[in-house]
């Protein structure tokens, strides 16, 4: 027989509400200078979000956002916030020109939200259209940085000017029409240094030179990988092809000019290897004249990440203190992994690879799924102890991704109870009128019986309780019930559930957590007027074992 006790809590409070009406008026006047500041900077998942408050002069509606951490800016979110035609990107200058006409009130003031991907540094400078700095902040520290400390891409000689202002729906660096291309640009000579992807989460930096009779050239890239057949008889997997603008560069006509640009990391993912081609004409997969090409082979190293394990559709959340109790000898796991290379998935228990079950996976790209059935009885771990298993993905002799999983298999009889059951806080008037409450439950109520064999009898779950009392000893006129049956507060047990006995092939398991949430009720009859305080009761769970 297993028994477990813990406290239930009920908090009764008296509330007095005071209401007041505040009337105010605000008279504003157009400002003669522009100002801006940051507020309400918060971390949200993988991003920082801040609110930018602005007051513009009556001379325009534009500001410039500059950042040495430009690649962390959430441009799509900014376009959603301000309107896509009100955001001009210039990645080469690490700047964004924004038009705030839709965010301004009659006094030329307003606010908008800015989002950046979390990193070690997320610095934003706000400048007016004349490149005067209005404010800056590092979103990581929520503090301003020394305005004397700058970086090359934000020096005044490289800043966006009024010529870049929002006069059309086009964006800075957008692909021009074929009529806009000059013969001088088409004949530009391009050289690119060899490139290697070292980290799939980092943008690819491209260095090179160009030479043209013009002092300005726009380069476009095409990145593609070849198709493949993973194994004999398998379906052909087509290659991946992506196009984009590398950037527009200025220099000296007739001279060799250097350039540095980046290609987003999202373009590189899922590619084992491929070729990078640069063009000086409008990039169109069906175009006959793409301009002068330069091709470089790009190698993406094998990677794997985001390895997930699911059991019965629930993502793994096991721990040493809360292991998964295996129901039977077989454990069927499913999951997913992001990788670009075939490999082997191993389930290694307690660092012992002698009998490690493995699953050979041939994975063509991102978000591959798998299912694996593991016979735990073959692992020699049927000992009622907690075991640590490591699910690891191996390719090329290296562990590319791993996650831990904890489990127990054995012959014990185990009762698991919640840490707390809370019926909440209630007003004094609730007790005058009478009410019934259901609990918030933290934890599980479950019975596991691994004593496999042929038995007669049954396994029952019993519940008993003590009266609800506060710290002064005042007793609450209330009761607990389970599915309509009152649980006496004198310690008398009431049967609240049964478990099907184990067999020679299967252990017994029953989870009563949902029943607990639905069937356990706290009832206060009408007309009671208790003292305020925190009322607790001890609820005792008992396994009534009559197996023979």
**Mean of residue pLDDT values:** 72
Whole-angstrom Rg: 34 Å
CATH architecture label of the largest domain? Sandwich
User: Which stretches are low in confidence, meaning pLDDT under 50 for 5 or more residues running?
Assistant: 6-31, 148-187, 282-292
What percentage of residues falls in helices of 4 or more residues? under 10%
Layout of SSEs?
Elements: E1 3-12, E2 35-44, E3 47-55, E4 62-66, H1 75-82, E5 87-90, E6 95-99, E7 109-117, E8 123-127, E9 133-138, H2 183-186, E10 189-192, E11 204-211, E12 216-224, E13 241-250, E14 257-263, H3 265-268, E15 273-279, E16 294-299, E17 304-311, E18 314-315, E19 324-325, E20 330-339, E21 343-349, E22 358-361, E23 368-375, E24 386-395, E25 398-408, E26 413-416, E27 420-426, H4 428-433, E28 435-437, E29 440-442, E30 446-449, E31 459-465, E32 479-482, E33 485-487, E34 494-499, E35 508-511, H5 513-519, E36 520-524, E37 533-545
Parallel strand pairs: 1-27, 19-25
Antiparallel strand pairs: 1-37, 2-3, 3-7, 4-6, 4-8, 5-6, 8-9, 10-11, 11-14, 12-13, 12-15, 15-16, 17-18, 17-20, 20-23, 21-22, 21-24, 24-25, 26-30, 27-29, 28-36, 30-35, 31-34, 31-37, 32-33, 32-36
Describe the structure.
By secondary structure, the chain is mostly beta strands. The protein has four domains: 35-164, Immunoglobulin-like; 178-299, Immunoglobulin-like (Sandwich); 304-408, Immunoglobulin-like, CATH 2.60.40.2550; 412-545, Sandwich (Immunoglobulin-like), CATH 2.60.40. The chain is built from five helices and 37 strands. The strands form nine sheets. A six-stranded mixed sheet has the order 29-27-1-37-31-34. Strand 2 (35-44) and strand 3 (47-55) form a beta hairpin. The longest helix is centred in the N-terminal third of the chain and has 8 residues, at 75-82. It is flat. The two termini are 14 Å apart. The relative contact order is 0.12.
